[in-house]
Design a protein that fits this description.
The structure is a homotetramer of 496-residue chains.
Chain A: H1 22-29, E1 36-38, E2 41-43, H2 53-68, H3 70-73, E3 74-76, E4 83-85, H4 94-111, H5 118-138, H6 142-156, E5 160-163, E6 186-191, E7 194-205, E8 212-215, E9 230-235, E10 241-245, E11 271-282, E12 286-289, H7 295-309, H8 312-330, H9 337-362, E13 365-366, E14 372-373, H10 376-386, H11 389-401, H12 411-415, H13 420-426, H14 435-449, H15 454-463, H16 468-478, H17 481-492
Parallel strand pairs in A: 1-10, 5-8
Antiparallel strand pairs in A: 1-2, 3-4, 6-7, 7-11, 8-9, 9-12, 10-11, 13-14
Chain lengths: 496, 496, 496, 496
């Protein structure tokens, strides 16, 4: 990947050479002194923590793919000719939007989990037209600031997270109506040259593994919510931030000896709670401050992008289908008709998700600001299928796995001098296979349907980018019932 | 629609000016002396038969749409610059393939039924590369003949059907293995200048409403099936053809007085059985004759196109969603949450079909012959959803309709001097609506879920372009299990 | 069937000997001078009308079954030792309630349609405890009147329908709030010795084929609805009643020559609208008049019985499964794995309905009045599955049928001298079968999934005994969330 | 619970007083010197191991329920009048079979997991008629031995497990065809007075928590499999047995401090692999030895009982529904219509399972040996729904839980002096609730849908008592297609 001459580094950006590989990316995270909490302890160095590291590996994979397959995982900035990581690219064509989906599927295949960079990519693409619109209407300069921020990210090839979801408290009340004003991130002070923000963001995908995060409001805002209408960029190593790593099912297996029982020892997702304690943000990094009426547009543009980004789960689904096919093979039943039929069904459901997702991307239209935005209705349809079909794929994978997926002895027992040899002998499948390989694929299926990556493949599929009902509300907004009623009237012969 | 100067008319084509409207199309069908049978009688003039006419109206709509929205329903032939009806166009770009889908959805919306022209469109696009391949391999001139045929169709703007499905007899046996040799269409004689064919084609969509039909084999063929490897064009008014109109649920309501109880009085689909009795076909109209090894490619290319053509059903689904919304409104429950939620679900399922269909079209690639072919896996996924979701939309529409959809008094009783006024009074819905409008929309829902157009919306969705298991077989062929198994092995840490 | 000495005939009951067979039942319907309207005409004698007769045949089957299998279709009245038709029996034990279900399934199997007598059976069993409660609370004598009425029905072995559903008008308003007071049946006059009622009842199952109907309110009532709180019995041949037969899909096929295209030529269901024009009802036949606060209990008791009565649809489902198996056999694919699997799925769904239904009956408890009432939650669960699974069975049956189910030529074309022989030859399935048998089973599947009996198997399954949302409301009422929350609290360690 | 005078203790039974409470049961397990392996270590005392103990607590609950609700959880032996734990009771009536189901549901509610005693109960009830049949046919005395064994279990009130599933190796081969003869348990030596057995049993529910296990063959056997046709009882503390505890998702959370993150800290299921190393079994404890032709009947009778025993999962489902309702309440959305609707759907699916299960029990018939056996078709239908619906309940519970269910900070972080107070403040729901209670219910939902008890609620629901395809095979055997085809023929007018 050739990176063009970087523009002058802005004052707020620590100078450093661009990251050119996954390995360099991992090193870039070291020594930042982040305040990361997990299970009652402060983690000294996340990079070296066995429970955190798999999530870093997953992000690192996005860097390596950019080198391995630049056509897929990088893009060229039209204005400069610079080739940048696709996760940092502002879309310039329909093909760019589609390519995001194809890259996402590939990374899902390669990691079997959440690689954590889509939020940031979708955030800059959603902010691009929204900042443009605010500037047009009110004479602010958010759009230029955003472009400078993005250019800086591109130049150094950094990871840019996006932080949207607030803790929310009582869901029947808006931000300014809560008893506790800090349940949504807000501006607590306006100073010359910047603002001070406070609050928290929940379920933050890959935040610890990012260099910067883009803070955004999580819902449409009322006029009274002015302090909550804040969009800005914050460096992850800002001392005002603390991170509390969320527990995942089977997370502590990463702390055990061995590599089998983890299922997918190399890769995992990451969700953490960010506590924001009076962080000063200079004006150059503020992209919205008080324009409450644009919050809804931002949320809608972001969710439109992000809901079709869940095409990544079809890549994860490919892994699960492969694992199901593999265990069927080890069990000696690969050609049995009901087994075959279940693999077809898994594929059918997986591709159904994919179809709606890339259809949404293919139907992209230019925004007033010039980048390309995907179709919102199909994006919601894609995501809504994601809240259903991975659960059915998981069910079918467990069906094909057999009961052993939930009763298999531990890796250490397989290695035990006394009983290990007997386990290896008794728990083999068809001849020509080993009990260890069988255990490995069973642990992978466990990992994806009950364990650590089930969090990403199932629960995050349910709630990420909005829970099912959020999609239904958007589908309802866009289903054009009056037009459809007119079609029916016309054919039924009803005067209207 | 401007039509360019037509090329010289071939000998086999009766000279006539191009058809320029739906009305002209209807006239073009008159006086052909077709041998059409229905319910034990020979139909003198199908155009004037009240039971046949709605199916002709649906085809006519494709002509009128070409005038109303040429960008959607016509296309320009690159070589000549001629603008032709899209149903007669050989795709020259990805955009052409996608536009077919958008036209299909629109026509589904406008007719609420099957407009019968997709088979012909998909047939010429599938034959285009297959004839090219045969010619390349064997030195035949099928491709040039096909191009001449298509050009002639375009010049006169005719309807070109496609005839694939044979009666099949014992499904465990191939054509040449059947007891009765005529269960599949075959060449019974080879003469200088042409061949003589015999047999039958079942479930022939819109054949009586076509000017020409393209006969094609229905399955992959063995070497012994040489006589069955026949592709050719036959004029519908050839005296060797007879047509037996298939019965549809509620078909005879078209013969009743009034316009309410038909549900959709103007439009319907049409399926008929074609009996082919020793028809001579001149060489110019023969596009395959004996090349058994290409039958499979033809079937696969055709079904790839045709399975995503079922996107038309999303247009029909739009009508049904509209009808369901309308009856909910008349019943006074349009804002009730479960009603609203069912409309969202209907929309979600409908758009899920659409997504996979247009995704397949967007993923088109050029064939060796130069036209564009859609993605086969996504086409099968699209069609497979079509075998499921319209049934669920129908179920939900009946749910929203209320029981009256299946117990409503007849139109004549509403008109009855004695009881009619009482019926009008008692069977109103919310204030501001009339019992007649309510009856009309209930009849439309009945028409689409139980009646005449349920045949097209449900049963044809199930079996047209191949029954569900046919899609599962194709999905199985394309699901790339070995690649997916390798993904799983890699993440599970299995040496392979 | 031995019938014991009848009690003295009440004044309001025309003396006649008990009906002892289906044939006698049919004769009993003759010459009643009913005012029956259909398609704009007054039907002179319903018994002889080819469109009505199949619905009469279905009721007649309930008489014949009583003779063929008295253990199943009759019951003994404990007080008198009289053996009566089970449809007229007041349950005296759990076994009685269960036996109703088994009889219903058997009759579904024998008729393939709705045999129309469950409403009456469920009505008398629901009224039994409700009248008892009113009498206990208010000193009325409704219960004794009801017992006398039931005893008279038993003695003469008559068909007793139940009429509940009013036209309803604006569904957001109660009976007394409607613009038009006649949208719900009501008392318009109170005279010495009786009341005069007016209004209409919609979707009345088998009303024309009944001897008496029990009029009941359709919903819980407010104090202002006093005139609408009327339960009474009316003879079907009362001159104040008019009947408008509802149209069914494909209904007029019954008027065609032949017996194939009807699918199920012998049996059908029947739904009609009853117009009630100032009918005087003597006090002896009034079982509630003004006690609005008991309407809810009546509706709940009735729907509890009636929702598990939909077990009848599993008998109809047995026919459809058999038809699907038969066509698979004729098509030569009976042993193909996906075909077999679909038959298993159909059976699984059908038996799932059955399980919940008979479980509800088995869980019956005695009412305060002494008869036995089934479990309400399970009854609602049973019916709710009925609103889903028959649609899926129908979809699978159409899948197995093949496309011919919706494109088959007419019976008359098969009989046509010119083309008939060719049709018989070409439309055969595997060797050893005939095209006619194949046509017959295809028409039966069409009849049950699109045609006349689809009305009963699908739409009535959806809306009969209450639309899906009505079951969800009842399930919500009985789901005991507080108890379940306490279970969760206890296990989660939450102090409460 | 009064226990009658015990019969004389057989020689093979260590004398001890009957167990009269859960606490005594727990003590009874102590000091047995079992050879239990887990994660590479030998567990010294399972009773005191924090990871094992919750599974013991679940079994203990069956003892306590017998004291709390003897009508539900005990039964009277007709011959002796002795009141015994229902899990040790041989059914004597339909009511006994139904009562098993009601007890199972209650224990599912009380433990939220698998309480492990159904296999033993179902095993003795299946062996009861099978041993009787063998004795009748061959003059053996298995039945009397079994009765003596059961009487001894009852007298001391012990836990009797059942061990059926062998490791199986290549699933396309029978026991005697495997390369390795020990892949199925077999008789390796016949000595005077007994037999010696060897092999292993996989997925053994609660085996470590049992006093005795009943070894049984897992499939129908061929004549060549004579050595594998062995049924016998073995004491769990026999030195020839070793146990390898299967890993469960999140199992090691039981080893962590605190009680929140376990979700359900008190109760869990247990599955282990039993290694059987040349164990001598005296004749008195052998109930089948070589009678291969009875293996199929045994498997069918056992699975018929056991598949409807999965009604226990509806009790677990009650807990999950309660947890979902609780979190909706804490989130402040309990009255939102889509939330309410999802709780209704969960209830509907849960009760659908229950309906088929108890219907199966209610339809019990006496066996030739005199005990009562449930309906096999409905039992398979019940279990088949269990392989589907709990997954959908789990999906809906995760939907209602919100994303926090998979991103919640650890219990230790909530307790952390620095960040804990902030977490408690920010992660509260609606006012009046605490973050801790919210965390507890979220952890319970995690436990049941991803964690330790998801193994029992999901994966064991899939595979326990036979994987889905096993039920489909049994449904296929019992679907009486020929009868159903005859119903269809009769209505279609087909001569047969």
């Amino acid at each position: 990947m050739s990176t063009p001459a970087a523009p002058p580094t802005p004052a707020w950006l620590r100078p450093r050479p661009p990251i050119t590989s996954g390995a360099e990316y991992v090193e870039s995270l070291r020594g930042r002194g982040l305040r990361v909490h997990f299970m009652g302890e402060r983690i000294a160095e996340p990079v070296d923590h066995p429970l955190i590291r798999p999530s870093i590996n997953a992000v690192a994979r996005t860097y390596d793919l950019a080198n391995e397959d630049p056509a897929l995982a990088t893009a060229v900035v039209g204005a400069s000719g610079a080739r940048v990581n696709r996760f940092l690219h502002v879309t310039e064509s329909v093909a760019d939007v589609v390519a995001q989906n194809k890259m996402q599927r590939r990374l899902g295949q390669l990691t079997g989990t959440c690689f954590q960079r889509c939020v940031g990519m979708d955030a800059i693409n959603a902010l691009y037209p929204v900042t443009w619109s605010i500037d047009q209407a009110t004479g602010t300069s958010y759009h230029a600031r955003l472009r400078a921020f993005v250019a800086a990210m591109q130049a150094q090839n950094l990871v840019n997270g996006g932080a949207m979801t607030d803790p929310k408290g009582d869901r029947s009340k808006g931000p300014s109506e809560q008893d506790d004003p800090d349940l949504f991130v807000r501006v607590v002070e306006r100073r010359p040259g910047g603002v001070v923000i406070r609050g928290a963001k929940a379920h933050q995908t890959g935040c610890i593994n990012s260099h910067w995060i883009l803070v955004m409001p999580t819902m449409r805002l009322a006029a009274a919510d002015r302090d909550y209408a804040i969009v800005c960029a914050v460096p992850v190593d800002h001392p005002g931030l603390r991170f509390v790593v969320g527990r995942q099912s089977c997370d502590t297996r990463a702390l055990e000896r061995g590599s089998v029982d983890q299922g997918n020892a190399r890769f995992s997702g990451q969700e953490a709670l960010i506590l924001i304690d009076d962080v000063f943000v200079p004006d150059e990094l503020v992209f919205m401050a008080g324009e409450t009426s644009y919050a809804a547009e931002l949320v809608e543009r972001f969710t439109a992008f992000h809901r079709r980004s869940y095409v990544c789960k079809t890549g994860v689904g490919d892994v699960l289908i492969g694992a199901a096919a593999l265990i069927a093979d080890y069990n000696g039943v690969a050609q049995v008709s009901h087994v075959r039929d279940k693999l077809v069904e898994m594929t059918h459901l997986n591709e159904t998700i994919y179809g709606a997702g890339i259809a949404s991307s293919y139907e992209s239209r230019p925004t007033p600001a010039g980048n390309y935005q995907n179709d919102e209705l199909l994006a919601n349809v894609c995501k809504h299928n994601v809240t259903r079909f991975p659960y059915e794929l998981a069910r079918l994978a467990q069906d094909l796995a057999g009961g052993l997926v939930a009763t298999l002895p531990s890796e250490q027992d397989f290695a035990d001098a006394e009983i290990g040899p007997l386990l290896h002998r008794l728990l083999r499948g068809r001849s020509g296979t080993t009990a260890e390989d069988r255990a490995r694929v069973l642990r992978l299926i466990e990992n994806m349907t009950l364990g650590r990556n089930a969090v990403g493949y199932l629960t995050e599929s349910m709630h990420g980018a909005g829970s099912p009902q959020a999609q239904r509300i958007q589908i309802a907004r866009q289903m054009q019932l009056e037009d459809k009623k007119q079609l029916a009237r016309s054919l039924a012969g009803i005067e209207s």
